[in-house]
Amino acid sequence: MLKNETLKIAIIGLGYVGLPLARLFATKYPVIGFDINKNRIDQLNAGKDNTLEVDDEILKAVLVKSPSNENGLYCSSTLDDIKDCTIYIVTVPTPVDKNNRPDLTPLYKSSETVGKVLKKGDIVIYESTVYPGVTEEECVPVLEKVSGLKFNSDFFAGYSPERINPGDKEHTVEKILKVTAGSTPEIGQKVDSLYKSVILAGTHLAPTIKVAEAAKVIENSQRDINIAFVNELAKIFNILNIDTHAVLEAASTKWNFLPFKPGLVGGHCIGVDPYYLAQKAQEHGYHPEIILAGRRLNDSMGEYVASQVIKVMIRKGINVSGAEVLMLGVTFKENCPDVRNTKIVDVIAALEDYGVKVTTYDPWANPEEVKHEYGIESVTELPDSHFDAIVLGVAHKEFLNIDLEVIKKDNAIVYDVKGIFEHSDSRL
Known about the structure:
By secondary structure, the chain is of the alpha/beta class. The chain is built from 14 helices and 14 strands. The chain has helices at about 20-25, 40-45, 55-60, 105-115, 135-145, 185-195, 210-240, 245-250, 275-285, 290-300, 300-315, 345-355, 365-375, 405, and strands at about 10, 30-35, 70-75, 85-90, 125, 155-160, 180, 205, 325-330, 355-360, 380, 385-390, 410-415, 425. The strands form two sheets. An eight-stranded mixed beta sheet has the order 3-2-1-4-5-6-7-8, with helices on both faces. α4 packs parallel to α5. The longest helix is centred in the middle third of the chain and has 31 residues, at about 210-240. The protein is globular. The N and C termini lie far apart (about 50 Å).
């Protein structure tokens, strides 16, 4: 059993994963939330979360004013504030580079940070999605080198893959069953007990860290492959002039049919994690055909959507060159401000290659972030203009209330990527 008075938890990285976890642990333990972004720290200590994952009032309820041993959350960018912690939980992102190769830089740097304050008896738990072996073969050596301590003798490791679903207010962190693992059987039990003390949905203790790492990476790879399948169906049914959504609705009447829908696969998980598994497989001489085929198909969907929009415009006699197109949404998913790895930008780029002028409207996305990440100008208010084409890219709830007739030109088309509009000229 864990004793609260002996535990002080540091959460390394306060983004979409780290902050909800820190808030949850802070209800029972003293927690220091650490992030190198001082602006983020100042914002959180003021009780404001611009990711919208933790409501401001809920955040304010757990905040404390100093890094003491009282239960609650103190956010800091100062290394000294985490030196007295006994549990370190790393929740940094694991992206891919421009060639879709895993980029472990955030993990290496965060491991160096923890290594500087690591003490005998401490446990370092990783939540970042990785390929099997990263925790013990990549991160632990960094911890040993920086701290001068010996793994599984002086300090220990654990793994509990994140299962955060950005923007989802129903399946919050405490309501999602958590996989856990430790570097020894005893540490596995301790890690499991720690999470079990706050996760209402319960935990599943995996036999090894590598098993837990593999379980996480295949969760999203499986979804990616299933979405690729229905995306390919959408391409086929479009050729056959059959409504894909109507087909899926009919097929879903069978009890064991999986209800996946076609769409753009972006974000920090589904569009990234399969590359981690593929990389590890290739290192061991195996070329994963299905995983990479699914990735290629899903990565091609932005250009496909743009080509379909242009075809519908041409069929209606709209002059493509210089046409005004309104893109509804730029985040990677609905009702969420997260623009990481959004594939809407692929649609925009492809449309602009055809010579159209794209206006991007998204009430959820931060225009400064969109401009910084993608060089795209976006607005948070519906433009007072008329457009030749309207493309629904993200199913934000606000878009359901738009009177499209007010912003359409007489011969304008509506292309519905998400299939939420009752009337549209075409949909994916």
